[in-house]
Known about the structure:
By secondary structure, the protein is an alpha/beta fold. The protein contains 15 helices and 19 strands. The strands form 4 sheets. Strands 1, 2, 6, 7, 8, 9 and 16 form a 7-stranded mixed sheet that branches. The protein has a 5-stranded mixed sheet with strand order 17-15-10-18-19. A 4-stranded antiparallel sheet has the order 11-14-13-12. Helix 1 packs parallel to helix 10 (about 375-395). The longest helix has 25 residues, at about 480-500.
Amino acid sequence: MKIHDVLIVGAGLAGMRAALAAPPMLDVAILSKVHPVRSHSVAAQGGINAALGENDSWEAHAFDTAKGGLYLGDQDAIEAMCREAPGEILELERMGVIFSRDERGRIAQRPFGGAGFPRTCYAADRTGHAILHAMYEQILKRHIAVYEEWYVTSLIVEDGVCRGVVAWDVLHGGLHAIGAKAVILATGGSGRVFLTSTNAVINTGDGMALAYRIGAPLEDMEFVQFHPTTLKNTGILITEGARGEGGYLLNTLGERFMKDYAPEQMELATRSTVSLAIGKEILEGRGVDGCVLLDLRHLGRQRIMERLPQIRELAIEFAGVDPIESPIPVRPGAHYQMGGVRTDQWGETEVPGLYAAGECACVSVHGANRLGGNSLLETIVFGRRAGQRASEYVRQVPPRAVSDGTLKTEEARIARLIMNPGPERAWQIRDELGKTLSQNLGIFRTKQSMTHALDCVQALKKRAARVMLQDHGKIFNSDLIHALELDSLLDIAETIAAGGIAREESRGAHYRSDFPNRDDGKWLKHTVAYQTSEGPRLDYAPVTITHFQPK
Ligand SMILES: Cc1cc2nc3c(=O)[nH]c(=O)nc-3n(C[C@H](O)[C@H](O)[C@H](O)COP(=O)(O)OP(=O)(O)OC[C@H]3O[C@@H](n4cnc5c(N)ncnc54)[C@H](O)[C@@H]3O)c2cc1C
């Protein structure tokens, strides 16, 4: 069996940055269920934050992040991220990322929601694409091994230490155990637990579920960000950069309704504020066919073509609307998981040998609401930190053979799944799960709606045990992968619902109509969920406050 020093699961920005942080003499490998540049990071549009401006500072960035997250973020981690951001942007530029420039030829920065300063660096509206491709070139240049189209089904744990993974070779079929002295999870988000989501179909929370199943807790899972502006019907993201460039939101009366919700910041209030405002306008009958309108017309053709070309293409292609001539119909949609595998500032989880970084981790820097542009930054800073820390750790780990116990267990599980008589189909359960969560755990939540959702999820779990496959083959069996992903989605959905029911307050993205106020006295604490056979067991952990007292 192959034993690597460091094995990274996930080839998005967090995974690639972790790989590049390891010293070249280590045996580092990346493993990904899709080709690396198809990771969801490629879809990031608006940009990445760093206090580069002469009148900006990392302290101001840290303050905005802590405040925007309603003080639920750990401020030591927030400070580390904001302090290291400018250096990371310059490093990305050295790797070859071509950022958009201002008139003076410097890296341009656009204003984003909840930020006191224009500090979002971007490459038009294709920032993730630009960074991911530049970084992949570095991976190729360094000859870092990549297991392309391999799907991890389980983590190997021996004597309480993570020692590798069991993975399915999607292209050829077959399970393999791959040993590693350290494993870094960089598996991205879980947005597909919701029906309408900006996330790629591969964002099924696998890494979170893998960690959860071996006893690493998940933190703050009830905090799911709903992006205010996703395209009507498809839920495709319309970047916050569109409002950063000056776009307005209008209701059916043609009013810029944000004046009633956030008169100073208007459309650039935090995402949770804007999403709630849009939800309220639609609920109270001032929407337009279940949406509101995002008006870019006043920006003019030239600005739209230069700064938002992809947004224009998407609006024309998927909504039949050219934003140069007409406003775009938009509504909030699930976008980002603020919670994830609980880690410290260096990506260490509670299981020795297991690290996590990027969207699958909860460091936590976003608290109850993530600021736009801070997620790409998180992947870069904490991807690097996890890579560094794991590299230090593996030097103290003696080489050791890994038993094939987990491989045998997984082989039996997959064999059962392939032969399962059914009659359930994974796509049907996935569809029902998405509908249930979108209807009951969306921007407005109550005890009743969330309890209903939890009951449904538990019933769906029982049905998932009877999923049958129509494809019994080995080669590129996407039927099998979908069934495995369904199990991840169900585990994740359960933690979102359980955490949400318990948290009797409203904070950031978690808005409860039955508890509309924030309650720092009782709830300024992290939710920590452990897996048990009866479902999630919830515990709580303190929030680290350094300089910014909750207001
Ligand atoms: C449409 C869209 C636009 C966005 N725009 C912005 C933006 O402008 N600015 C910003 O800051 N943030 C943005 N975000 C958020 C940000 O892009 C993501 O949070 C971030 O890119 C996640 O990166 P990651 O490296 O953690 O994971 P990802 O890029 O999602 O990569 C996950 C990797 O894990 C692999 N993987 C997962 N499960 C398995 C498994 N079981 N086995 C093997 N491999 C597995 C996948 O193959 C993939 O390689 C956006 C998100 C979306 C959806």
